[in-house]
Automatic annotation (TrEMBL), chain A:
Its main location: membrane. One of its GO terms (molecular function) is proton-transporting ATP synthase activity, rotational mechanism. It comes from Methylopila turkensis. Pfam families: ATP-synt_A. The chain crosses the membrane at residues 24-41, 76-98, 104-125, 146-164, 184-209, 216-237. GO terms for cellular component: plasma membrane; proton-transporting ATP synthase complex. HAMAP family: ATP_synth_a_bact (MF_01393). Belongs to the ATPase A chain family. InterPro entries: ATP_synth_F0_asu (IPR000568), ATP_synth_F0_asu_AS (IPR023011), ATP_synth_F0_asu_bact/mt (IPR045083), F0_ATP_A_sf (IPR035908). This is ATP synthase subunit a. It is a multi-pass membrane protein. The lineage of its organism: Bacteria, Pseudomonadati, Pseudomonadota, Alphaproteobacteria, Hyphomicrobiales. Keywords: ATP synthesis, Cell membrane, CF(0), Hydrogen ion transport, Ion transport, Membrane, Transmembrane, Transmembrane helix, Transport. It is found in: Cell membrane; Membrane.
From TrEMBL, chain B:
The chain crosses the membrane at residues 54-73. Keywords: ATP synthesis, Cell membrane, CF(0), Coiled coil, Hydrogen ion transport, Ion transport, Membrane, Transmembrane, Transmembrane helix, Transport. It is a single-pass membrane protein. This is ATP synthase subunit b. GO terms for molecular function: proton-transporting ATP synthase activity, rotational mechanism; proton-transporting ATPase activity, rotational mechanism. F(1)F(0) ATP synthase produces ATP from ADP in the presence of a proton or sodium gradient. F-type ATPases consist of two structural domains, F(1) containing the extramembraneous catalytic core and F(0) containing the membrane proton channel, linked together by a central stalk and a peripheral stalk. During catalysis, ATP synthesis in the catalytic domain of F(1) is coupled via a rotary mechanism of the central stalk subunits to proton translocation. Component of the F(0) channel, it forms part of the peripheral stalk, linking F(1) to F(0). The b'-subunit is a diverged and duplicated form of b found in plants and photosynthetic bacteria. It comes from the Bacteria. It is found in: Cell inner membrane; Cell membrane. It comes from Methylopila turkensis. F-type ATPases have 2 components, F(1) - the catalytic core - and F(0) - the membrane proton channel. F(1) has five subunits: alpha(3), beta(3), gamma(1), delta(1), epsilon(1). F(0) has three main subunits: a(1), b(2) and c(10-14). The alpha and beta chains form an alternating ring which encloses part of the gamma chain. F(1) is attached to F(0) by a central stalk formed by the gamma and epsilon chains, while a peripheral stalk is formed by the delta and b chains.
Length: 244, 202
């Protein structure tokens, strides 16, 4: 029994059936969940929405408001992308909170791929829309000529670090949250296993803590999806309006 | 034991673990790629799983993007915009109805004011007519009274004249009688009349 609790084991990628891994299963579940919510929720097209329709409309208006605020009216070109990203990350995060499940977003390669998708969209759209004028992004207005090279260098580095910060933020939050949960939940069983009845009583403390952290993780799951989508909007805004 | 010596290349390491897994007593628990327990490869940094994750991510996220952009968002936009339009239409209808009722109210008040004005006009007219009639009546009455007064004055004058005429006859006879008694001779009537007239005229 001792040493059976390994907080890292939950992140292992294991094959389930042929090429389908546990990660793939949860990606498929997330997509199925999002699709079910949106398609079933929008099926009745009621004037006064039911619960599911309210949820679908809420997510629609939430993401639409986010794009409007950060990128303006023209940002609506990216509505499907931002919406898909937000819903995908949110559902992956939330599905990962089900005990015994797998968290897709706790793998850096997944979050990095999503962040790269955002940055490549910014670069591709920026050059397609503004041509070389997109490079104005790296040249802020009103900077004296003699420090301009330095500022441009800083801007380029900050631009290049965006996919890293965007992906690491989500990945690290998910990873750390799940490790913390596992460790504190592990204390409960370890205490009772090691100390018997006394341990069972003492185990109440880490149990309460686990409950609290679980609630916090639900907040983090939503918040990280929101932050990811919000930063995506802000980066896409650069592609739309590179002149600061 | 897991051959940690080869795990420098995670991909190769995993294949070897996979191949050796059945021979190992704890292999079933560790399930293929868990060299992480030995600190060799932490699952998120295990590059051997990257290709599979990326392929699945591309497939699932691509499918989600397709579903979202082709079905979900147009339908939701339809619902939300439709509701906004419906509400806007209802509000416009309410505004129109309010304007209509306001206009009706104004028309009603105008009609009421007109009616009141007309009633006032009719009342004034009637009042004027009555006053005019009364004035006319008064005038005819005045005229009648004046005529009567005139007639009465004429009659008085005639009576006075007649009375004055009688006075002359009586005075003549009395004078003739007085002269006859005093002188014993009857004076000439013409002299008597002349004398009487002279004294009357005085």
């Amino acid at each position: 029994m001792a040493g059976a609790i390994d907080p890292i084991h939950q992140f292992a990628i294991t094959p389930v059936l042929g090429p389908v891994t546990n990660s793939a299963v949860f990606m498929i579940l997330a997509v199925a969940g999002v699709s079910a919510l949106l398609l079933i929720g929008s099926r009745e097209r009621a004037l006064v929405p039911g619960r599911l329709q309210s949820l679908a409309e809420l997510s629609y208006e939430f993401v639409r408001g986010m794009i409007h605020q950060t990128a303006g009216k023209h940002g609506m070109v990216f509505f499907p992308l931002v919406f898909s990203l937000f819903m995908f990350v949110l559902f992956c995060n939330l599905l990962g909170l089900i005990p015994g499940s797998f968290t897709v977003t706790s793998h850096i390669i997944v979050t990095f791929a999503l962040a790269l998708l955002v940055i490549l969209t910014v670069i591709g759209y920026g050059f397609a829309k503004h041509g070389l004028g997109f490079l104005k992004l790296f040249v802020p207005h009103g900077v004296p000529g003699y420090i301009l090279p330095l500022v441009v260098a800083i801007e380029v580095i900050s631009f290049l670090s965006r996919p890293i910060s965007l992906s690491v933020r989500l990945f690290a939050n998910m990873l750390a949250g799940h490790i913390t949960l596992k460790v504190f939940a592990g204390f409960v069983t370890m205490l009772s296993a090691a100390l018997g009845g006394v341990g069972l009583v003492l185990g109440i403390l880490p149990l309460l803590l686990t409950i609290g952290i679980t609630a916090l993780e639900f907040l983090v799951a939503f918040l990280q999806a929101y932050v990811f989508a919000l930063l995506t909007c802000m980066y896409l805004n650069d592609a739309l309006h590179p002149g600061h | 034991m897991i051959p940690t010596s080869i795990s420098v290349d995670p991909a190769i390491g995993t294949t070897i673990v996979l191949a050796q897994a059945p021979a190992e007593p704890h292999g079933a628990e560790h399930m293929a790629s868990t060299p992480g327990e030995h600190g060799a490869a932490f699952p998120p940094f295990d590059a051997s799983t990257y290709a599979s994750q990326l392929i699945w991510l591309a497939l699932t996220f691509g499918a989600l993007y397709f579903i979202v952009s082709k079905f979900a968002l147009p339908r939701l936009a339809n619902i939300v915009e439709g509701r906004a339009e419906r509400i806007e239409g209802d509000l416009a209808e309410a505004r129109r109805l309010r304007a209509e009722s306001k206009a009706a109210g104004e028309a009603y008040e105008k009609a009421q004011a007109d009616a009141r004005a007309r009633a006032n006009a009719i009342a004034a007219e009637a009042r004027d007519a009555v006053a005019k009639q009364a004035e006319e009546n008064r005038k005819t009455l005045d005229a009648e009274l004046a005529a009567k007064l005139e007639a009465a004055e004429a009659q008085i004058a005639a009576t006075k004249q007649a009375a004055l005429g009688n006075v002359r006859g009586i005075a003549t006879e009395a004078a003739a009688a007085i002269v006859e008694r005093l002188t014993g001779a009857a004076p000439a009537p013409a002299e008597i009349e002349q004398a009487v007239d002279a004294s009357l005229a005085r």
